Fold:
Amino acid sequence: MDLFEPDGPPSWVQVAVERGLSLDADVLTYAVPNELHPIALGSRVRVPLGRGATPTAGWVVAPGTTPNLAPERIKRVIDVDDRVSPLPESLIDVSRWVSDYYQCPMGMTLASVVPAAVKRGTGRTLNRHWSRSSIPQPDRLPPAQRRILEVLNKHSGSAPLLESVLLEASGVKTRGPLQALERAGLLEVTLVEAIRGTDIPGGLDPRRPDCLTDEQQRAIQSIGEAIPRGASVHVLHGVTGSGKTEVYLQLIEQVLAAGKTALMLVPEIALTPQTGARLSGRFPDHRVAILHSGLHASQRHAEWQAVRSGEARVILGARSAVFAPVCERELGLVVVDEEHESSYKQEQAPRYHGRDLAILRAHRAECPIILGSATPSMETWSKAVSGRWHLHRMRSRPPGMALPRVEVVDLAQEQKSSHDRSLGQTLMQGLHEVTQSGDQAIVLLNRRGWASWIGCSSQMCGYTLRCEACEASMVMHRDNRLPQGGHVKCHHCLRSNRLPSICPDCGKGLIKLGLGTQRLEEVLREELPHLEAHQIVRVDSDQISGLQDLHEILGAFGRREIRVLLGTQMIAKGLDFPGVRLVGVVSADTALQLPDFRASERTFQLVSQVAGRAGRSADGPQARVIVQSMHPDNPAVLHAAAHEWDRFAEHELTMRARAGLPPAKRMARIVFRNRDLDAAMAMANAAAQALTNTKEEIELLGPAPCPMARIDDRHRIGLEVLGETPGTLGRALAKARAAGGLKPGEKVVIDVDPTTLL
Ligand code: ADP
Ligand code: ZN
Structure:
């Protein structure tokens, strides 16, 4: 047989094939034909799959052993894709962990670990490099050819020169003379592989502050001491504006000086291009790689390759950068900024949490990790206060930058005296004052569109406009080009419809309630007539089509050309603009009302984070934050307003422990989706039974309809599994799957450590 090396042992590989979620056993053994032997671990290959032997892409994840099959049934690897560098072993191990822990097949996990641009080899080019051959130069040559040879002769050493460099240096515009020289045997060409990446902006703000605060110094010192000592987890709890970034930067500097690599995760890199520019400005002698989905495909490939080759010494990226192909021996520090952000959780399979994987990677690399936040997640905080992780605190901002004064106003009270029902007079007056004195304001409202509720004006009728396919209200969006002045849209399935002019049930007029950002913009334009049109700008996903737009807007806000920035939580995060004297939260209740045990935590985070955008200038009067709420006595709102993190966290952890919810327990959530309600319920009941049969110490909540009981014509039944440890949960899920009672796929979604329960 030609399967094997003539005298060598038979060779087998285990390949994780890239197939859908439903394929449970997706790591299969294949034979390596002679001409491909040996295949490196981590290689991308094509293998025949299924009855039709369909060529399917996959990754070599382990050496194989002789399968227990008749020789004629053994399939062979078709080919190896040499456009893609093999994955480092560390990444295969991490993927295997993700696959087990998050209950997602290995092939599918790997598919999301490696960017598509890398798999397709996007932007990969072969560059021509030219050098002199040993044939002596003839006396007579056309001038262009002569100049080329002169440059090469002068070029010290015999190293080939890149074609573009050679042409430029010899003042030759076309490739003709090169080809003529090659035909004459005077030049030799070598092809060198490269990736055509376009430049990523860099080099901003290399300034370091003149002096560190005492708190910054202490944090840098104690984490710095841990750097050479192996794995450790550090929670950096610093109020907004306390200068956490400076702490990260100085620690990264230490890691670079020790010859190691640093990995830094941020929640929304695409929104904050400053971070990348800041890093490359601070470390001009090191290659900073930026990994995120907003890059062009070839850029993405080039950045990935720079990490893979070890060239990049600082790696910055959003969630998926936790899969940076960095060698674990090289890794000296991992930073997760704003560790509480829900965008670290991936909402598609594999439903991994970037922060938790970052901890895993740091642990495997035996290096410290810093989890930074002004409002840590309860998961992180509980480990910090119990002493399992190291806690470092920064309670104040650098001198002069006081925390803003936060006022909570009772919206119910204000509505009595205000002509508009959603913006109270306190906020309106505040906006007048700051804009008239030339300062800037940010107004946050976490609801898009013009009105989020449309219903009949007659109380007898009770009609409300709902999505036909979802258990949700349609949201009105204004559009003056349409005859009715707008349309209605479902924010869950994205169906959109005409806006009815009268109630379809009784013919009476319709009323529109629930202020959205679009209407807020209209109200602000009316109420602040002294501002010019371009001085008020709305930022939400309806308005902003590309990152370019957003970067331009933030630039204009930074130059104070824009006075009032209003929008959804897109503007609540991370922005650092010294001219902001007022932040308004139109409704602190949007998150509070959600039927989710994290509602209070989210509300506290939102209010503190958006408030943290104010007061970032060292001079002028104290900045103000006005928070409107229908529940002004709610502890989350009150504690956030008083900057009382500890009291809030203590209260919240007590409540969670009493209710037996995370972080006191671990949770997995299973959602059963089906067009047929009974079928969904039957699957959920069967799964609940299978889980109970595992005899693991778990507790089940449900099955019961999800708060969002139907989306896109599919009924949704939820089942929550709680256990003391991740091990218990993992075993219960694995046993239930093995027994056939739980089949993840299109209709059954398993979410381990869910961050939302809607
Ligand atoms: P955080 O991430 O903690 O919210 P930042 O890192 O964005 O805070 O820092 C807030 C602001 O304070 C930034 O403009 C930063 O340049 C500035 N800053 C940081 N450290 C100092 C310092 N020691 N002295 C003066 N300004 C500082
Ligand atoms: Zn819908």
Notes: Residues 467 and 474 are 6 Å apart (CA to CA). Residues 1-7 have pLDDT under 50 and may be disordered.
